Prior knowledge:
Blueprint: H1 9-21, E1 40-44, E2 49-52, E3 61-66, H2 69-85, E4 91-96, H3 102-115, E5 124-127, H4 131-137, E6 147-151, E7 157-162, H5 167-177
Parallel strand pairs: 3-4, 4-5
Antiparallel strand pairs: 1-2, 1-5, 3-6, 6-7
Amino acid sequence: MLRRTRPAAGTLAIFAILAVAGIxxxxxxxxxxxxxxxxxxxxxxxxxxxxxxxxxxxxxAMVIVSFSRxxxxxxxxxxxxxxxxxxxxxxxxAIFLESVPxxxxxxxxxxxxxxxxxxxxDRTLLLYQQQSSWQQRLHVTDTSYACVLVxxxxxxxxxxxxxxxxxxxxxxxxxxxxx
Length: 179
């Protein structure tokens, strides 16, 4: 016969304090212009470690974040256009794969690798956790589109947009990058 035990009152008090303090929970506060980009770290498509914004430190850089396959296509549109107009601007991508079932992740990564220009392989971060908290922080309401950030040389957000690639949005970005 299984016997049920109740946690000690002290244990419950510790859990209550941790819950109120938010310890163990990722920060979900909305990011805005001027905020430092919190660290995003993991492995690249080639398996090398990468941490943003540290990897972009000292230069203006773009970070394109996607949360779905269609968001990845939108991210690709952004990256291709920016690469064409600003070939020297470092572009990093962060791809959240948490929603991809474990059994299919290697196929997803293989597809990403084959569709990506070689220069981007070591600048593409694969992330497998905290997807919903980052969607919330970046105010992404539709994962069909990428979230695009421009970071200043100190890693602070200078421009942010989450929505479909559109010429009007791209023109606003160009004005920010090349006033």
